[in-house]
Amino acid sequence: MNNNFKDYNEVSDILKALAHPVRLCIVRGLLDKGKCNVSHMQECLDLPQSTVSQHLQKLRSIGIVETDRNGLEVNYTIADMRVKKLVHIFFGEVIENE
Fold this sequence. Notes:
The protein is α+β, with helices and mostly antiparallel strands. Helices cover 60% and strands 14% of the residues. It is built from five helices and three strands; from the N terminus they run H-H-E-H-H-E-E-H. Strands 1-3-2 form a three-stranded antiparallel β-sheet. Strand 2 (65-70) and strand 3 form a beta hairpin. The longest helix has 14 residues, at 5-18.
């Protein structure tokens, strides 16, 4: 048995972040779209931009998403492919090429 609780803490933090419905929706949307900016997510989720930004910051701090800046536009993408597998499992979706 692995007694390195750092590994357990990391996985636990990812699962806690995905346990929130808005963050799960953001992650699933990013998996479907590939990359997206806050304004588009705000329109899709029908939430204030500040709320979406707070959820994105949480996802970013854990390493689930990363940003790519293009001028003034900041796009978000999934950074941790373990999350891709988890979300597909959560929703009973088949992952191709695996």
